[in-house]
Amino acid sequence: MNSDPERIAADFNARSANYAKNLWHRDYAEGLVAYSAIGPGDRVLDAGVGTGFATLAAARRIGPAGAVVGVDVSDGMLVQARTAIEGARLNNVDLIRGDACDLPQFADASFDAVICSAALLYMPVERALGEWLRVLKPGGSIGFSTMKAGFPRAGQLFRARASAFGVTVTDPSAALGSEPASRTSLERAGFVDVHVVHDRVTFSDADLAFAWESNLRSSSHEAVRALPAHQLEALRVSYQTALAEARQADAAFGLADVLYVYGRKPDTRSDRPQA
């Protein structure tokens, strides 16, 4: 997958108008905050803020004494996030455009918590986690979400149909989409007290109505967009037919297994190795 921030920004700019209409994104983001250690008065970094679902949940949880800083590379997504935050009349949120893997504007130990809802798969994982460890206070918490490998099934079906047109696209959730892989990613970065919460989100019929557009425009599926126009149209018809058949055949098609992964930056006192 292309990990160039500007290329990813362009992809999400193209998706921004409809992104928040996929309400599973909201449930997914709210779950990340609900299971997290974020508390009243915390200063929170939302890395990859998107349209703001996790930021909104975090801002409500920390209350007026806390603050959320949301960072995203996509101007289009930030426009949507600002609109949502203004609509919610929240005054404890600041949004900035930037690369969430490179945050020189923030000093070491600037935040009590870092959250990343659904965005880590679009970043170089080691570099992102290293930067988030740096900006966290000792004892501060981190949480990120990932689809379990093979989910959502609409995405898996998209990649299967693309392969019939000669385009091989790997599962973007494969790298982090298991408990051992996600746990190891945090431990290698230097986090402690790592734990993983298994959950599910539901793709409604309304969500699945956006499946073609969402998968086609995904940064993970960039290679598909290089198909000639007539093949791309044939793929669209093939995919939407297969999607309708799969939904008809399996009532659980819209269920997606997700992982919420949490850890803590070592505290220089309490986490010092015992003599």
Blueprint of the fold:
Layout lengths: L4 H15 L4 H11 L8 E5 L5 H10 L4 E6 L2 H14 L4 E5 L13 E6 L8 H11 E12 L5 H11 L15 H11 L2 E11 L2 H4 L2 H7 L11 H21 L5 E10 L11
Parallel strand pairs: 1-2, 1-4, 2-3, 4-5
Antiparallel strand pairs: 5-7, 6-7
Helix pairs in contact: 1-4, 2-3, 5-7, 6-10
Structure commentary:
This protein is an alpha/beta fold. Helix content is 42%, strand content 20%. It is built from ten helices and seven strands. It has a seven-stranded mixed beta sheet. The longest helix has 21 residues. The radius of gyration is 19 Å and the shape is globular. It starts with a helix and ends in an 11-residue tail after the last strand. The model has no long low-confidence stretch (mean pLDDT 94).
Number of strands: 7
Distance separating the two termini: 45 Å
The structure class reads alpha/beta
Helix count?
Answer: 10
CATH architecture designation of the domain at 5-147 and 172-202 and 258-264: 3-Layer(aba) Sandwich
Could you estimate the helical fraction of the residues in percent?
Answer: 40-55%
Task: Label this structure with key terms.
20% strand, Rossmann fold, seven-stranded mixed beta sheet, alpha/beta, 7 strands, single chain, 275 residues
Could you write a compact summary of the structure shown?
With 275 residues, the chain is α/β, with parallel strands linked by helices. The chain has helices at 5-19, 24-34, 53-62, 75-88, 125-135, 153-163, 179-189, 205-208, 211-217, 229-249; strands spanning 43-47, 67-72, 93-97, 111-116, 136-147, 192-202, 255-264. It has a domain at 5-147 and 172-202 and 258-264: Rossmann fold (3-Layer(aba) Sandwich).
